[in-house]
Amino acid sequence: MSVRGLLASRPEAFGLTLDLLAGADGLDRIITSPHIQKTGLALAGFHEYLKPGRVLVFGESEIRYLERLEPPAAMTAIRLALARDFPCVLITGGFPPPPGLVVEAERAHLPLLHTAVATPAAIAKLSSLLDDSLAERTIVHAVLMDILGLGVLLVGESGIGKSECALDLIVRGHRLVADDTVDVRRRAESIAIGTCPEMTRHHMELRGLGVINVKDLFGIASTRSSKRVELVVQLERWDSAREYERLGLDEEFFELVGLRFPLVRMPVAPGRNIAILVEVAARNQLLRARGHHAARLLAERLERTLRQAAPAEPVNDAEDVEDAEDLEAGGGR
Fold it and tell me: Using one digit for the tens of pLDDT, what is the confidence trace for 87-112?
């Protein structure tokens, strides 16, 4: 993400207003990390702690430290701190920039940004914005639903009935996140968030009806803007020659943005109410997340019952007689 892109991404929506003070020629510098770099001891000469690709923050402590230095020493400290490959510098807390910093930023074509937000809040807001913008992402041809608070991604070939299933789920009181095109972004280590592109938000395309606005038809409570993906249901055409899962003991996973999600393969055939089956799959996944696995509990109970009902090992009378005769013969000798 470039510094120009950062300024154009409406950071004020995150409560972070950014102003460009100097270094406009370097707006195409690239930000490669969502982590923020505090200058800290780097101004005192400990430059090994500075990581390139991060936004360099000057807070109150850095500003006060530079104010206490003689102008030549302050300029030297600034030049050494900016010698690394930083995309931009951000002054927080509304403090005026040291004169040497403005001059050096212009000379190095390094964007110098300014915000009135206090340092801790500015770092938190900027980290959140960059984490969202730099996250690994992909576009999936699918439908994302919020079913009982669980994010369920419906995938399958075109025309299999994903949108019709989603519409049935909406009628049953569940919420639509995205239809046809789902923007999935990875957040943190194990979280993927699905959203709908702004252009098609709240809309659904149904063969025979065309495009409908779900929010206008069913109310604002029938939609939501984003949801964490927690379960994937793959709709497949029924194949009579194929064996489908009957017990639910074998677990499958669906890989997306480098993460693995529980996968349920749902065969589609005339007479099957897919929406109810998907809702039951979501309920079942919620129970599994709480440690209640119905199929495994049944299998364990069946195994215990069979073990208790198994007959004792048969006694071999002939072997017992031979052992007794051997003992008697040994005693007689």
Answer: 999 999 998 888 788 888 888 899 99
326 is catalytic: no
Handedness of CA 41, 44, 49, 53 (dihedral sign): positive
Catalytic residue flag (residue 146): no
Parts of the chain belonging to CATH 3.40.1390.20: 3-133
Quick count: other Cβ atoms within 10 Å of Cβ 22? 22
Q: How far is 121 from 164, CA to CA, in rounded Å? A: 44
Give the residue with greater pLDDT, 206 vs 239: 206
Report pTM: 0.69
Kindly name the residue from 141, 172, 301, 304 that is annotated as catalytic.
141
Above pLDDT 90, what percent of the chain? 40
- The residues of the chain that CATH labels 3.40.50.300 are 137-289
- pLDDT by residue (tens digit) across 146-204? 999 999 999 999 889 999 999 999 999 999 999 999 999 988 778 999 999 888 999 99
CATH of domain 137-289: 3.40.50.300
**Is residue 51 flagged as an active site residue?**
no
Q: Give the chain's count of helices (H) and strands (E).
A: 10, 15
Q: Choose the catalytic residue: 162, 185, 186, 224.
A: 162
What distance in Å separates the CA atoms of residue 155 and residue 162, rounded to the nearest whole number?
7
Give catalytic status of residue 180 as yes or no. yes
Rg value, the chain, Cα? 32
Choosing from 174, 175, 180, 186, which is the catalytic residue?
Answer: 180
Instruction: Put the strands of the sheet holding 112-114 in their side by side order.
Output: 19-22, 112-114, 89-91, 55-58, 36-38
Distance CA 97, CA 112 (A): 9
Among 68, 242, 246, 307, the one annotated catalytic: 246
Please state which CATH number belongs to domain 3-133: 3.40.1390.20
